[in-house]
Amino acid sequence: MEDVRWLDEREQRAWRSLQSMLMRLDGELARRLAADSGLSYPDFTVLVELTDRPDGRMRMFELAHALGWEKSRLSHHVGRMVTRGLVTKETCDSDRRGADVVVTERGRREIAAAAPGHVEAVRRLFVDRIGPAQLDTIGEVADIVLAGLDEMDAAPDAGG
Questions:
Q1: CA angle 136, 20, 7 (to 5 degrees)
Q2: CA dist., res. 122 & res. 25, Å (int)
């Protein structure tokens, strides 16, 4: 392990601060969402992806990629959401082997009811605490890191 490029103090501070911030924000947003609605944070993220589409549907593999979830995790979670009437699973018209996840009217009502409180919490906990230039920087940094992850996913030996 002689070739390990250990993080220096500045890099370590930035990385650990980012990790801590994301974990605490996710936890607090999840707690508030559960208290204010019948949705879990994973329910909410699935419904956001679906309701951002005009037809309210996505292929399972597309949804898994958009969320950064393993297929098995998504499959289990979608199954629970189907049971609760938030989404349905339908055979894909263009590929009978594939499945689409489709938001139901109940799912639309649930996210519509939960979204105002969620966005207010995002504003109060994150957006309103930093300035426009910092928001732009965070967006640019996130785009760069996400593009790198997408490149890795597209590489023939993805994962290494």
A1: 85
A2: 9
In the chain, how many H helices and how many E strands? 6, 3
d(CA 67, CA 48): 10
**What are the structural domains of the chain?**
27-113 (1.10.10.10)
The two tokens of residue 126 are 């994150």
In sequence order, which residues have a C-beta less than 8 Å from that of residue 41 and are 6 or more positions away?
Answer: 26, 29, 30, 33, 34
Q: Say which amino acid occupies 73.
A: R
Helices 71-83 and 60-67 sit at what angle, rounded to 10 degrees? 110
Give pLDDT tens digits for 42-90: 999 999 999 999 999 999 999 999 999 999 999 999 999 999 999 999 9
Mean pLDDT confidence for 24-47:
96
In sequence order, which residues have a C-beta less than 8 Å from that of residue 143 and are 6 or more positions away?
none
Q: Can you tell me the distance from the alpha carbon of 132 to that of 134, in angstroms, rounded to the nearest whole number?
A: 5
pLDDT, tens only, 108-143: 999 999 999 999 999 999 999 999 999 999 999 999
